[in-house]
Write a structure and sequence with these properties.
The chain has 213 residues and is of the alpha+beta class. Helix content is 59%, strand content 13%. It has eight helices and seven strands. The strands form three sheets. A three-stranded antiparallel sheet has the order 6-5-7. A hairpin with a 2-residue loop joins strand 5 and strand 6. Helix 1 runs antiparallel to helix 3 and helix 3 packs across helix 5. The protein is elongated. The structure holds zinc ion (ZN).
Length: 213
């Protein structure tokens, strides 16, 4: 199969166009259905790697430190996210524990790790092993990462609890808050652009190889 990186296909209606050369911050749209075909990402890709590393660090802090400390009649108790999941499983709510593990731990972590791997400068120069599979995995994990829903749940629970006991927010709570914002920025990035940059470099290398042969 011949590869044609000079062409671009509309994801919505399959119309084929010559890939336009975009100026700074320009967006190309499909003439037929107005869907976005391509956009100039500028140096966003360069900024994305430090943001992803930041998100991974926050993720570790959010899971190692307690989310909240509750004090009631001189007794105090604190818990981490993993501690809460284990308590759920112990109380016979294994399905809920599984759901929390998947949506707040597993899927966001998969997304961040895959993105980190694909954004490494070496990965962008040479298409890394498992490139296609990992991009697909990241896309599949996307709708299942629900840290923001979890964050909302915690806030509601804390407000309700604060009537009954003294609630002291832990470091993990702030980390989860920051992680929610950072992850939204990181994950809103369209993986198509990483793909496109790899394709362009591959095409360039193939061309050089053909000329030197
Ligand atoms: Zn279209």
């Amino acid at each position: 199969m011949q590869k044609r990186p000079d062409l671009i296909v509309c994801e919505e209606c399959d119309a084929v166009y010559h890939r336009p050369r975009l100026g700074r911050c320009e967006i190309a749209r499909c003439q037929r259905c107005n869907a976005e075909l391509d956009r100039d990402t500028g140096n966003r890709l360069e900024r994305l790697l430090p943001l992803t590393v930041g998100a991974l660090v926050l993720f570790v802090i959010a899971n190692v430190f307690p989310i909240v400390t509750i004090e009631l009649q001189g007794l105090s108790s604190d818990t981490t996210l993993i501690g809460a999941v284990m308590a759920l499983a112990r109380d016979g709510m294994s399905e809920v524990a599984l759901l929390v593990t998947a949506t707040t731990l597993l899927f966001p972590l998969i997304q961040m790790l895959v993105l980190f791997y694909l954004l490494l400068p070496s990965s962008r120069l040479e298409r890394p092993p498992g490139f296609v599979l990992l991009l697909r995995l990241m896309q599949a994990a996307r709708p299942w990462g629900m840290i923001e829903v979890f964050m909302l749940g915690i806030l509601v629970a804390l407000i309700k609890l604060s009537n009954m006991a003294e609630v002291i927010p832990g470091p993990a709570l702030w980390s989860f808050g920051a992680l929610t914002v950072l992850l939204t920025v990181v994950v809103s990035f369209n993986p198509r652009y990483i793909w496109h940059i790899c394709e362009q470099k591959q095409a360039l290398r193939d061309e050089v190889r053909e000329h030197s042969a």
